[in-house]
Amino acid sequence: MWQVVYEELKSEGLEIIAVALDTAGKAAVETRIRATDIAERPPVLGRLMGWSDELWSKQAPPTYTCLIDEAHVVAELYGMVNVPQGVWIDEQGRIVRPIESAGTSDVVRHLDRTSFELPEDVAAQGVALRSQYVDALRDWVRKGAASRYVMAPDEIRKRLRGPGEADVRAATHVRLGRHLYAQGALERAKHHFREAVRLCPDKWNYRRQSNMLDPESVGQLNAGPDFWAAIDALGDTPFYPPAELGNAG
Amino acid sequence: MNVSTILYDDRSTGGLHAVADADRLWLTKAELEQATGWKLEPEGLCRGDACVRTNPTWLDDQGRVDLAAFATYMGQPIVREDAAGAWAFGDNVNAVCDQLFSLQAPDFTLPDLDGKPHSLSDFRGRKVFLFSWGSY
Prior knowledge:
A: two-stranded antiparallel ribbon; B: 4-stranded antiparallel sheet; 4-stranded mixed sheet; 3 helices; globular
């Protein structure tokens, strides 16, 4: 879906790198990356992610860089706790905004779990947030360091999630889990993913991955009772905290 | 207990003949270097510019090195799966933390769908919007 944005901004100096945190690798992501499934993607999916119906209708296979991270290494290095999350990196390789929701919002929590419909007003809020994020990205591409969305280093550091011992241990479990998964030792792989979830209960990428390792669930979107129960358990805590775009600079 | 696979940094090395004995993991010099890049030299265990003075308890009388003791000294988490003969060594928490808080974007190398590797550092000189996603 980012392809439309890439087409617009690549000639102005933007590269996009999409990293799939997906332990099943190619089997889980190939149809999504090659976009051979566009016709089957339900419109509600775009609305859940805040893409307007107009943009959603313009989906095209990505020509930007799409990488596969079976061991969730990038999430460990950057302190990412969910998918999708984004970060902006300038020409010198410096992080210029914190790791944050890349235009996604908690509209998913308003989805009717039986009809899979999203109320119009909620969908509109999601589209507004996404559009604000894309506008901010465009502003940075055009103005660079002068963009009001580039944050001061100390402001970025305040918002980063630095790792603790539990994080690096969880990441080690995930590396071993990924190895065992590739060896066909599914139950032991799951055990190590569950350990990672136990150590880092706030890391949704581990939690969501751990629920979707069985062969029949690979590549599927989890909308099962376990997922919703975990979402409900959040209470007032956001699933996708909105990016801070209003008072940047 | 034989350990044939060691995961260390982003390396995955199979076909090893390491031996686990309780909390210790013994490797020959050659296999240690193959699996971790650390080389036993007269001045210690060395890799690139770094050398760590060897603690005598890390070595046995056959000249093998206890990777578990060394990794513990280096502050690396260890996770093992003996039934599969696989041990994984993680990152030092301070190293990951310092790297992130330096705000110099941590580099990584990952494959695309065709298996071709790409590094973040290949894109130096361009602005990069990096995002994670998952099929789940």
